[in-house]
Amino acid sequence: MTEETHTHLLPACRRQRLALLVLVSLHAMVALTMLLSQVRPPQIDVAQAGIPELTKLTNLLTSLVYWQYLPGWALLAVLSAVAWGHLRHARARHVPPDRRERVARRYRRTLVTTLLALPALKIPSLLDVAVWPRAHALAFLLCLPTTLYALWLVHHLQRFRRVPVPLLLTAAGWGAVIATGFGLTMNEWWKSFSTLHFPLPENTLDVTRLKDTGLPMVSGFFEELGKGAGVAILFLLHRRHFDSVVSGVVVGAATGLGFNFAESVTYMAAFDGSSAGFHFWARQVAGLMAAHAAFTAVTGAAFGIARQLRSRSQQLTTIALGLCAAASAHFCNNAMLDYLAKESHKWFTADDTFDVLVLTPAQLLLFQGPSVVLYVLLLRRGLRSEAGGLRVALTTLPPASRDAITEQEAAVLLSPARRFRLKVDALRAGENPRRGLTAYRRLARLHAAQLDLATERWHSLRGEADPYAPDEASSRARVQAIKAVLAAPKDCR
Questions:
Q1: Is the confidence at residue 291, as pLDDT, over 70?
Q2: Which of 160, 177, 224, 485 is most exposed, with the fewest beta carbons within 10 Å of its own?
Q3: Which sequence ranges are marked TM in the entry (predicted)?
Q4: Model pTM?
Q5: Domain spans of the chain, in order of start
Q6: DSSP state letters, 383-396
Q7: What is the DSSP letter of 161?
Q8: DSSP state, 244?
Q9: Where are the alpha helices (DSSP H) in 283-311?
Q10: What is the full DSSP assignment across 96-137?
């Protein structure tokens, strides 16, 4: 008699467990800051000063940073206990394993959704939206087209196999919601922690100097950590779509664009949009492909490089260096922009037009330009590497794949310009716009399927094939199926 299969609440896939660990680590970081705020005695003892009302207000403001986390963690504990008891009871009742697995999957989805919802509740601030609803709506509508254009541009930087659009939008959504909420939590914690646990300056009215001193470093590190966690989770769950440094740059830049979108809406809507024009120009025009997009693109590039390394220690070192480089560049940018905002009026004549059109782009170019140059150079090098690898893969295809990708088709796949020209010709050759568009899409699907087959062949030659990726026979069958549709008579389509 065989032993009955035991159903676990944690996912069976190792990559899924690691992705869950990354998500839980963000909550552990929040719990650590909460612990630091509680165990360290405050330097400013308002209770001994005889102001009990101020003590209550201080405690309230400190706890507001974590208003959703404590009840959320309690809910997670209750859900975990209920799930464990339910699965244990189902096993005792000899419920079939497949049914128990479906129950466990539902509980896992609920727990993961709760873990994601806690930082998401931080953005946007419900109080700000309630005070300035019209400003938030207008800022959202203004920033959406520019962000979508930037995502389209990032997606088309890939000349060969491209990251799927749903994956790209998921990365942007993580940056806009989860990473922004986590970063906002950490920034609010520092503002509260620094003013309560460090000595007051000589001028007691200058309390903001305490939080402003370390805020660039805190925000730079934790914001990049939140965005990098999203890239790490996507890397673990969708590793086969990380082909090289190109895929990493694209996913990282998309995550940064999502973060930039949420931050732009927040700053533009503040104080009923009093400085919306400046923030739109600086964040959605002049600095759209810089700032957060550039910083996180460097982190994503590190994951793309790690995809092609075999040693686990080299992979972890590369990812850690990429994250440190992004956080350092973010910190330097924040610190210098804050410094110049205070000092530039001493060097130049106060002129709003000169400040917006000249000084602001010059500052962005000086402090964010190096990160842009870095990820562009990495992207350029990655595209060359992909072209060389695909050329080798296409010339060494096994005989079984020769029908899926002929020599003429291989030459077309290596030239993005020729692929585009063929699709345009198919569009123009249609009897009507609808048929032309259908032919365009089918040819694009054929090229994408052939590039999938060639890219997996490239990874196989390098000894880095992903065991979760479709095998060569499945990819070949997909190409043949698309070719059969294209070769069918027009009346049969």
A1: yes
A2: 485
A3: 18-36, 66-87, 107-123, 135-154, 166-186, 217-237, 244-262, 282-306, 318-336, 356-378
A4: 0.88
A5: 1-121, 126-389, 398-492
A6: HHHHHHHHHHHHHT
A7: S
A8: S
A9: 291-307
A10: -HHHHHHHHHHHHHHHHHHHHHHHHTTSS-HHHHHHSHHHHH
